[in-house]
Design a protein that fits this description.
Elements: E1 6-7, H1 19-24, H2 27-32, E2 37-38, H3 40-46, H4 70-74, E3 85-86, H5 100-107, E4 110-115, H6 117-131, E5 140-142, E6 154-159, H7 166-184, E7 187-190, H8 203-220, E8 225-226, E9 228-229, H9 240-248, H10 256-272, E10 278-279, H11 281-285, E11 295-298, E12 301-304, H12 319-335
Parallel strand pairs: 4-6, 4-7, 5-6, 7-8, 9-10
Antiparallel strand pairs: 1-2, 3-11, 11-12
C-alpha cells in the first residue's frame, strides 16, 4: 500500500455528493472539482467519517502514482438504509432477448475468456438461450489454443488458475496470451471468482497485480482489446447458521467478503471504465428482474450482494441467475466494436 493515493471529494462536502464522480470513472473531472489526494494512512483516519476533512493532505511524491486505492474511500460514500437488506431502484433490469444481428456479431469475433465455475454457469446459460433461438450460431470451444480461430470466429474459454489464489489466475491468463492467444484474439478478458476475495484479502495488492499484467499485455498486443469483468458476488447468509456465526464473531457469507469484491470492482471501474469495456457481472447479479437492488450493510457501507433467487448454494448461478447473466454477457460481447 506504500505510496498509493486515494482520490476523494472536495474537503468539507458531504461524502454522498462525491459518488457521482466515482461512478463516472473520470479522474480528470474529479480533480477539476478540487478533489483531495489522501494517502493510505490518511484514508484509514477518515474512511469512517461522514464529512471529508476541511484541510488538504500534502501530496508530495504521490502525484506521480495512479490512484489504485480510490475505492477504499469510495466504498464508504454510499448512504445506507437502516436495515441490513435494502432495495434501491435501478434501471438495469433483466436484459432483453438477444436478436439475430447480435448473435451474428458475436459469432464473427475471436474471443478468449479465462474464468472458473461461475463462468461455466454463464456459458451454460448461453447454451440454453441459444437452444431457444434458431438464429443463434455461435462456436463455443474450451481451449487456450489460438488454432480455434483458424477458420472463423469463436468464443474460446478456459478454467484458469486456482480458486482463492487470484495471482495464479493472472499468471495463467498471461501464459495463455503469450502462448498465442495474444496474437490471435480480437477480444480477451479474465474473470475472477467470488472465492478469490475473502474478508482477509489484500485488495490493493490483487488489483496492482492485475493492472500490471493487463496493462503490459495491452502494450504487447495492441490489436487485441482487453476487456474486464467485475467480480461475482455471494448471497448474504441468513438463518440459524448466520446467527451463530454472528454470536461467535465469525464472518457471515455475503458481508465482509462482498465488501472486498465491491472494493475491487470500484477500482476496476475507476481505472478502466472510461477507456476499455467492462462487463458488470456484479451489477447483474445484484439486480432483481424488477430493477431493484439487493444489498447488505457493512458498518457504514451499503454493498451489493447476489440476489438469493439467482442461486441455490449462495454463490453459483441457478437457471434464473445464469439466464440473466448470460443475456447480459451476450449483449456486452455484441456491443464491442
Amino acid at each position: 500500500m506504500r505510496g498509493l493515493p486515494v482520490l476523494v471529494g472536495r474537503p468539507g462536502r458531504r461524502i454522498e455528493e462525491t459518488i457521482a464522480v466515482v461512478d463516472s470513472g473520470s479522474k480528470a473531472a474529479a480533480l477539476k472539482t478540487g478533489a483531495t489526494l489522501l494517502g493510505p494512512q490518511a484514508w484509514l483516519r477518515t474512511s469512517r467519517k461522514r464529512v471529508l476533512p476541511e484541510r488538504e493532505i500534502p501530496r508530495g511524491p504521490m502525484k506521480r502514482i495512479e490512484p489504485l486505492l480510490l475505492s477504499f474511500l469510495a466504498v464508504s460514500l454510499f448512504a445506507c438504509s437502516e436495515d441490513d437488506m435494502s432495495t434501491h431502484p435501478d434501471s438495469a433490469a433483466a436484459p432483453p432477448a438477444i436478436g439475430r444481428e447480435e448473435w451474428q456479431r458475436i459469432a464473427s469475433k475471436k474471443i478468449f475468456w479465462g474464468h472458473k465455475s461461475v463462468g461455466f454457469n454463464i456459458l451454460k446459460g448461453v447454451d440454453e438461450l441459444a437452444a431457444g433461438a434458431p438464429e443463434a450460431v455461435l462456436q463455443i470451444v474450451e481451449s487456450t489454443s489460438p488454432g480455434v480461430f483458424d477458420r472463423s470466429g469463436a468464443l474460446a474459454h478456459a478454467a484458469l488458475g486456482n480458486n482463492t489464489d487470484p495471482r495464479s489466475k493472472i499468471d495463467s491468463f498471461v501464459d495463455a496470451m503469450e502462448a498465442g492467444m495474444g496474437n490471435a484474439a480480437d477480444l480477451a478478458f479474465l474473470k475472477f471468482c467470488y472465492a478469490d476475495f475473502q474478508p482477509e484479502s489484500d485488495v490493493p495488492a490483487i488489483f496492482a497485480d492485475y493492472k500490471q499484467a493487463i496493462d503490459s499485455l495491452a502494450l504487447r498486443y495492441p490489436e487485441t482489446t482487453f476487456a474486464h469483468v467485475t467480480v461475482p458476488l455471494t448471497a448474504r447468509q441468513t438463518g440459524p447458521k448466520a446467527l451463530i456465526k454472528k454470536l461467535l464473531g465469525r464472518p457471515i457469507r455475503g458481508v465482509e467478503d462482498n465488501l472486498k469484491r465491491y472494493q475491487f470492482n470500484l477500482l476496476l471501474k475507476v481505472e478502466y471504465g472510461d477507456r476499455t469495456p467492462i462487463f458488470d457481472l456484479a451489477k447483474i447479479e445484484s439486480t432483481r428482474p424488477d430493477g431493484s437492488r439487493e444489498t447488505t450493510r457493512v458498518s457504514d457501507v451499503t454493498v451489493p450482494t447476489l440476489v438469493p433467487a439467482y442461486t441455490d448454494d449462495g454463490g453459483h448461478l441457478n437457471q434464473l441467475g445464469r439466464h440473466n447473466a448470460a443475456a447480459g454477457f451476450l449483449h456486452f460481447l455484441a456491443e464491442i466494436e
